[in-house]
Amino acid sequence: MSSKENAAVNQLLALLENRYAMRVLWALRDGHAQTFRLLQDSVGGITPNTLNTRIKELREAGLMGHGDEGYSVTASGTDLLKRLSDLQAFAVKWQLNHVRKSAPAASNVK
């Protein structure tokens, strides 16, 4: 990977590492616009101030926008979410494997 490609990846990861950024995008993954309140409820546990900050950052990054019906992902946001959808399948498999390894052996449980 070239240094420009690394810089682009690092810039995107820095944006997505911000608290709740991924959850905001994930809440909009079905393509339906959401009002501020509905988006706040969909994300869960996010304060209005933090949500405003994440919305501003994600809009500036071109990943989400605001229209008459509320907030939604842009074409770039949809592209990113498609690429991240493989993460969901991986997470389910990882969790099953991780739980099996970390669970106490049946012979040790009495």
Highlighted features:
two-stranded antiparallel sheet, 110 residues, 7% strand, mainly alpha
Q: Quick recap of the structure?
A:
By secondary structure, the chain is mostly helical. It has helices spanning 3-17, 21-27, 36-43, 48-60, 75-102, and strands spanning 64-67, 70-73.
Describe this protein's structure.
The protein is mainly alpha-helical and 110 residues long. 65% of the residues lie in helices and 7% in strands. It contains 5 helices and 2 strands; from the N terminus they run ααααββα. The chain has helices at 3-17, 21-27, 36-43, 48-60, 75-102, and strands spanning 64-67, 70-73. Strands 1-2 form a two-stranded antiparallel sheet. A hairpin with a 2-residue loop joins β1 (64-67) and β2.
Unreliable stretches (pLDDT < 50, length at least 5) are: none
Shape, please? globular
Summed over residues and divided by their number, the pLDDT gives a mean of 91
Structural category is: mainly alpha
- The percent range for helix content is 55-70%
N-end to C-end Cα span: 52 Å
| Major sheet summary line | 2 strands, antiparallel
Helix and strand pattern = HHHHEEH
Strand content: 5-15%
**Helix tally?**
5
* Record field, number of beta strands: 2
Radius of gyration: 18 Å
* Main sheet strand line-up: 1-2
